[in-house]
Each structure stands twice: as C-alpha cells, then as structure tokens.
Specification:
- This protein is α+β, with helices and mostly antiparallel strands.
- About 20% of the residues lie in helices and about 25% in strands.
- The chain is built from 8 helices and 26 strands.
- It has helices at about 5-15, 170-175, 210-220, 225-230, 255-275, 345-355, 390-400, 450-455, and strands at about 45-55, 55-60, 80-85, 95-100, 110-115, 120-130, 130-135, 135-140, 150-155, 180-185, 235, 250, 255, 290-295, 300-305, 325-330, 360-365, 380, 410, 420-425, 435-440, 460-465, 470-475, 480-490, 500-505, 515.
- The strands form 6 sheets. A 7-stranded mixed β-sheet has the order 11-10-9-23-24-25-26. A 7-stranded mixed β-sheet has the order 14-15-17-19-21-20-22.
C-alpha cells in the first residue's frame, strides 16, 4: 500500500488509544459497589458548569479530598454522587435532581448533562457525595434561537501560570458576574517549576495521566479560580500547555509519533476530566472534538476554535531563528501555501459554513491567538499562530467580507499581553472585523518598552499593554458592544484589586477599534 499521511495518522491514533484515554469509554466503567461515606470533604476542587443551551447545561465536579497529594485521597472504588439544580439560591425550588457515579478510571470526575430547564434564566446547583455537600454555585441557560435578548456579557481569559502570580483576576471575573466565561487556553502549564517561581507546584513535568491529573488538581484548588467557575457557565478551549509547549498536530518539537500521541491522549483525557464539557467532546485516545458553536438568541453566535489539534507541522523550519524557535522570515514562501490550514480542512469548512449561514447580529469568535499579522524586528514573524498559516486567515476574512457576516469580533489569548486591533485583508483596507486579546490571568507578558516599536511596525494594533495581568470583558447589546480590559493592580499579591485599564466600543456595522 502506498504511504498516506492520513492513514498513517489513523494508525498512530489507534496505537496510542490502546495506551491512554480508553478509560473514558463507558465499557471501561465496570465498578463493583459504590462508596456511600467518605471521611473527608471530597469537593476541594470546587464545582463548575458549562456549555449552556436553551434547555440545559453541564454540571461538573471532581472528587479530591487531598488535591495536592498523589491519589487525591481517593481509593479505586466508585463513589455515589447526587446533584440538584434549583430556580433560587436557597435551593428551595429544585427543578431537577439525580445520581451518578464518580469512578477512578475517569479521575473521579462527574459530568452531568441537565435537560428540561427553562431558557434564558439563572439557576443554582450543588452536589452531594460521601455524606458531604459541595458549595452552591450559579449557572444559566441560553436564550431560544428565535429570542431577541438585549444583552450578553462575556468574560474572556487565558494563560494562568501558577508560578507567576495569584488569581486575583479570577476573583474579578466572579465579581463582574458575566453571563458566560470563555477560557481560551493554557489552563495549566505542564512544565517543571522555575527556580524563580512565586509559588511552586510539584516538581517535574506533567507528561502522563498521573502527572496531568495532579497538575490540574493543584490549579483547581485555588479559591479564586473556583469562585470564577461557580459564578457562571464556562466555554473552554485549549492551547499548547495543556499538553506540551508549542505542540501542534502530532508533534511537539522533537517529540512525535506514537510516543507523543500517547502523551497527547493522556493530556486530552485529563483535560476532559477537569472541564465542564459535554459527552460529545469525550476523547478517544489522542483525538477530541472541541470546536463548536453557541447561539444566544438572535443577538450573538459564538464559535470556539481548536487551533492546536488539527494543524500541520510548523513551516519554514530550515529558516528558523537560532535564538527563537518560533521566529521565521516573513518572506518564507512556505507559510503562504494554500493547503496549510491552522484549523485543519474539516474544522475550517465547518467554520465557513456556519459563518455563511449566521443570522446573528454579533458573531464572536473564541480562539487562542492574536489573529492579525504581527511583524517583528528583522523582518520576522512567528510560525506558531495565524502568521504561520497565512491563507487560513485570508480565507476567513474573505468569508466575513463576501458574505457580509454581521459584526465579527475575535477574542484571543496566548501572548500574555492586552491587544486591540483592526482586522483587514490588506494594510490600509477598511477593517472587516475587530479583535481583542485579553492579556493573561497570571503569566508574564511583553515589557511595555518593547510594545512601542511593535505597534509602530503594526499600525493595525491600536492598543497594547503587557505588564498588567487580567482579562477582557465584552458586553454586547442590540446596537453596540463595549469591551473593557480589566487589570489587576499587582498579580504577585493575593487579593489585589481589579480595575478597567482600557475600554473600547464597536457600533453595529462599524468594524474597527474605537475608544469607549
């Protein structure tokens, strides 16, 4: 048989599936007798909700009485978990309740897909397990497709390196009480801790099921992160550090083949275990469906993209900068190849179909990067994001323009810096969309002294701030949207206050960055 990259990739996926990830399939869940009592509070990782639809939402928890210890204080036996969801904070008007099992094969995580709820309203929920009760948390459903809601308030955030700072930004998100939280990647960092870490997690790099589970638990034990999860439903996607630094497709630097896919399978399984995702996103080995769309009546549609799993290998490797493994010459012709897609052919086709069919007033896109071109010094660009896959960006912008997609707004992360910019097909053209990158929760960014020259060579960037940690907050109305960059006064101080550091407005039908 002739060599086929697709056939070879499928073979590698099947090989890796035998090594990791298969435990999430229902056939693997064959517990004996569930435990009825637990000696310690198992809800030390909090609770969460996500994936809101007009009639339901996902409720999540993971049992871990000792989050920072291997084994988490849980044995191998399954545990009975009950849940209830109500129309009031006191949980007097319970509308749904049920029971499920938390099993060791799935890290004692629980994903409950609640149905039969009323559209466009708030609910409160909690879990019970082993004689203990979780905190009460808040969630909500989306409006019906034909509804005409007046507003949608969304917090968007990324990059919460545990070592670099505290999570005061998450406390700010909880206080802002958004309708929805988008987390756009780097929920954990897999690397071993730095000697200069402000706060340290376990030594060593997360690279297998046990390591990823411990790293997620270490992060989730943070009370400010738990507060943000308890305040509103989340919609999540990943970037690289949920698996390995700068990975893309089937490789991370020198790591490739079945060995890397086995690692990716373990990382994907643990990511699913720790996020409020639906069953349709459950991974099979190193494959996981994560791109999807959420509607908010006729007011907004929100597409969440996966720019890591489906991309081909980085390009222009022969011309890589010896001092920076991502920098390549902007003149490298390989990055402009039409068949290179940051999203992969299937996801990209899905995205274009969805955008062409959209009748929403605002079309929001959650993805991992600064989408617009970012020219660096010496005529270089990065090959890790959209600049390494130029035609993917061009095709997307042409779809926005040619199909008159209403009010496209791109929300991003990854670069640890607040950016606001115009998106146009060519320099000097009228913008077809607007983009905002919401800084980082705690990961260190670009020093401001370097941002002036960066903006000079990239005039489509209208705002940049790299030394303040925080998140973005977008409030969409019928006729306009307001975007605030929310900054923490000092992320190295627990409980540091949060304030607006910049604000922008977009009038419906007028793409481009304008001060609020």
């Amino acid at each position: 048989m002739a060599y086929s990259p697709l056939t070879d990739r499928r073979r590698l996926i099947l090989q890796a599936s035998a090594l990791a990830g298969a435990a999430l399939m229902p056939a693997a869940w064959t517990p004996a007798v569930a435990q009825a009592r637990l000696p310690e509070d198992p809800f030390r990782l909090g609770v969460a909700s996500g994936e809101p639809e007009p009639d339901g939402v996902v409720l999540w928890t993971r049992l871990a009485p000792r989050p920072t210890e291997p084994g988490f204080g849980m044995g191998s036996a399954p545990v009975r978990v009950s849940w209830e969801i109500a129309e009031d904070e006191g949980l007097k008007r319970v509308v749904r309740r049920g029971r499920t099992l938390a099993v060791a094969e799935a890290g004692h995580s629980v994903h409950v897909e609640v149905q039969g709820l009323r559209p466009d309203r708030w609910y409160w929920y909690r879990f019970f397990a082993g004689g203990h009760s979780s905190q009460v948390a808040r969630t909500r459903t989306a409006p019906l497709p034909g509804a005409t809601p007046d507003r949608l308030k969304v917090a968007f955030a990324s990059c919460q390196k545990w070592e670099d700072g505290f999570y005061a930004a998450h406390a700010g998100i909880a206080a802002d009480a958004p309708d929805l939280v988008l987390f756009l990647g780097d929920y954990i960092y897999e690397r071993k801790p730095s000697d200069k870490a402000l706060r340290r997690h376990p030594e060593g790099e997360a690279a297998d099921l046990a390591g990823y589970r411990l790293r997620h638990a270490w992060y989730k034990a943070d009370p400010d992160l738990q507060a943000a999860h308890a305040a509103a439903p989340w919609l999540v996607t990943w970037d690289d550090h949920e698996v390995a630094n700068d990975y893309g497709g089937d490789a991370a630097g020198a790591q490739s083949g079945p060995g890397f896919l086995a690692r990716r399978a373990a990382a994907y399984q643990v990511y699913y275990e720790n996020m409020p995702l639906r069953r349709r996103s459950r991974p099979v080995g190193p494959a996981m469906s994560l791109y999807r769309s959420l509607g908010w009546g006729d007011l907004a549609a929100l597409d969440m993209l996966d720019t890591r799993q489906h991309r081909p290998a980085p390009t222009c490797l022969a011309e890589i900068d010896a001092n920076d493994s991502k920098r390549i010459p902007a003149s490298c012709a390989e990055r402009d190849a039409p068949d290179r897609s940051l999203l992969g052919a299937t996801q990209e086709a899905w995205l274009h179909r969805r955008l062409k069919a959209s009748r929403a007033r605002w079309n929001l896109m959650g993805q991992q990067y600064l989408m617009g071109p970012l020219g660096l010094d010496k005529g270089q660009v990065s090959n890790d994001g959209w600049d390494g896959y130029v035609q993917t960006r061009r095709r997307l912008m042409e779809t926005w323009r040619d199909h008159r997609v209403s009010n496209p707004v791109v929300l991003g992360g990854d670069i640890h810096t607040f950016f606001a910019g115009d998106l146009a097909l060519k320099h000097g053209d009228r913008p077809v969309a607007t983009e905002f990158v919401g800084g980082s929760i705690s990961s260190k960014g670009i020093e401001n002294k370097n941002l002036g020259p960066l903006r000079f060579f990239n005039p489509h960037l209208k705002y940049a701030e790299g030394e303040t940690r925080g998140y973005g907050l977008i409030e969409v109305g019928r006729d306009a949207a307001r975007i605030a960059f929310r900054g923490v006064a000092d992320a190295t101080v627990r409980g540091s206050p949060v304030r607006d550091i910049a604000a922008f407005a977009i009038a419906s039908g007028e793409a481009g960055v304008k001060p609020a």
